[in-house]
Amino acid sequence: MVSKLLRWAGSIFLLLYATGLAAQDAKPNPEAYHRAVEYCRGDVPQPTAISPDRTIVCFSAKTGLDVDVSTVNQIADNGLFVLSGYGGKRDTAMSVSDLLRSRNATVVVFDVCAYHCAEYYFVASARTYVVKNTIVVWQHFLSDCQVTFREPHDSSVPKLWRAECLNGKEWRLSFASDAPVLRQFYQDRVVDRYHFEPLPDSEYVRKRLKRLYDQTGRFPEIGWMLSPTSLKRLFKADINYEAYPQSQEEATALANQFGARDVIYDP
């Protein structure tokens, strides 16, 4: 009797394991992603909506409202989390990202993804798909702050390490690349958990940011993109661009289209 139960339990485990692998290894489905984007562009509740079969959750983070966590919590396993905008509140973005990962959701991005959208939702789960004519941007807002640069372990190109900003009459720490809350979020999502330092960037981006800082003495108010090559170096997630911009001019045009003055293109 015991041996039968063990064999039965083993069979169930193998079935669940194989099902999980199949979900993780399934190839990207651009047609399904585009259908989901069209659904979310349609007449659906704002800022959060869910399809009747629970396979699609939409989050339009352009409204200034945060995502409805109770709606996201209904997403089916292997569903699609379709979003555009700025990502809402940081703590909510972190917790919802963990929820999406637990459901093996695919993140589908359209139009623009910036701020907390890029920092958290973009790498929330095991797969992200960026539809054509979309711009994903990372950016600091530290132009009036005192900033410190430091060379990362794997490069001689300085990277922003800390920033203190004036709050009333006191200077207070506003950004630290080694902040525990950031390290906890990224530790299982990055390739090198021991040396990764937020915000993600590339050597090319760092050089451009440092050059602009040296010219003005202020941290530049400009965002940056990350190429598929840079993303693969940094993150474990399978991140696919339908069509990554091919030039600085194309990237600038996209940035202008969605309200940004300019962006650093990562070749």
What does this structure look like?
It is a single chain. The protein is globular, with a radius of gyration of 20 Å. It has nine helices and twelve strands. Strands 1, 2, 3, 4, 5, 6 and 11 form a seven-stranded mixed beta sheet that branches. It has a three-stranded antiparallel beta sheet with strand order 7-8-9, with no helix packed on it. A hairpin with a 5-residue loop joins β1 and β2. With 267 residues, the protein is of the alpha/beta class. It starts with a helix and ends with a strand. 36% of the residues lie in helices and 22% in strands.
Q: Per the principal axes of the C-alpha atoms, what is the gross shape?
A: globular
Give the termini separation.
63 Å
- If you average the pLDDT, what whole number results? 90
- What is the percent of helical residues? 25-40%
Radius of gyration, in Å, reads: 20 Å
The unreliable regions are 1-24
H/I helix tally: 9
Largest sheet: 7 strands, mixed
Order of SSEs = HHEEHEHEHEEEEEHHEHEHE
Name the structural class: alpha/beta
How many distinct beta strands? 12
Q: Proportion of β residues?
A: 15-25%
